[in-house]
């Protein structure tokens, strides 16, 4: 079993950022406390399998981002970590608005998937910045890719990882947002 980056460092960064962005700034109060679980990584053809049915019984928007130690690793597709966010379609517009994102009037799937990607990018950039502020190297972050319900080709991840963290956030009486992440250890500056 390989060593993962310490969830006791990453989970508080992610939960704190969501609380700051959506609750403090956006005014959307959680309907219940967030939940954190450690889950096994399901791998398919060398990639992390992603299927919304593992987290939701309703349609969802999905976005994913990868983390790399440097540009060379990014170009060689040697991910150090991955983050996937899932948004319940029924409440996504309200969560996006609370996060300060401009929701289009027609709320078509394409626009909403793009907003899911924007939210994922905000979360990933905050994680990168806060890890750097805590003395770790500044990671390279890929651009968010976004989907609906599943990512059939899976997500690039550090192959030596066999567990992921799953953080579920509840807003508007819904399991509204789930963040899955996995990361191999990263060096200090």
Protein traits:
Chemotaxis protein chec, alpha+beta, three-stranded antiparallel sheet, single chain, globular, 189 residues, 35% strand, seven-stranded antiparallel sheet
Element layout with pairings:
Elements lengths: L6 H19 L4 E11 L2 E2 L2 E5 L8 E9 L2 H5 L5 E8 L3 H7 L10 H25 L6 E2 L3 E4 L1 E6 L7 E9 L2 E10 L6
Antiparallel strand pairs: 1-9, 2-3, 3-8, 4-5, 4-6, 4-7, 5-10, 9-10
Helix pairs in contact: 1-4
Residue share in helix = 25-40%
The count of strands amounts to 10
What overall form do the CA principal axes indicate?
globular
Average pLDDT works out at 94
What does this structure look like?
30% of the residues lie in helices and 35% in strands. The model has no long low-confidence stretch (mean pLDDT 94). It is of the alpha+beta class and 189 residues long. The strands form two sheets. Strands 1, 4, 5, 6, 7, 9 and 10 form a seven-stranded antiparallel sheet that branches. A three-stranded antiparallel sheet has the order 2-3-8, with no helix packed on it. It has a single domain (7-183), classed as Chemotaxis protein chec (3-Layer(aba) Sandwich), CATH 3.40.1550. The protein is built from four helices and ten strands; from the N terminus they run αββββαβααβββββ. 38% of the residues are buried.
């Amino acid at each position: 079993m390989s060593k993962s980056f310490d969830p006791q460092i990453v989970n508080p960064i992610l939960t704190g950022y969501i609380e700051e962005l959506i609750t403090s700034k956006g005014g959307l109060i959680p309907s219940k406390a967030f939940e954190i679980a450690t889950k096994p990584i399901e791998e398919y053809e060398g990639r992390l399998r992603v299927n919304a049915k593992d987290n939701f019984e309703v349609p969802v928007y999905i976005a994913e981002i990868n983390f790399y130690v440097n540009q060379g690793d990014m170009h060689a597709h040697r991910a150090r970590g991955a983050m996937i966010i899932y948004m319940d379609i029924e409440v996504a517009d309200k969560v996006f608005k609370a996060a300060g994102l401009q929701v289009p009037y027609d709320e078509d799937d394409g626009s909403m998937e793009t907003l899911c990607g924007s939210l994922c990018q905000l979360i990933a950039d905050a994680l990168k910045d806060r890890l750097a502020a805590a003395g770790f190297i500044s990671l390279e972050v890929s651009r968010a890719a976004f989907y609906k319900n599943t990512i059939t080709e899976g997500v690039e991840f550090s192959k030596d990882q066999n567990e992921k963290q799953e953080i579920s956030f509840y807003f508007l009486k819904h399991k509204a947002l789930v963040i899955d992440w996995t990361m191999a250890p990263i060096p200090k500056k």
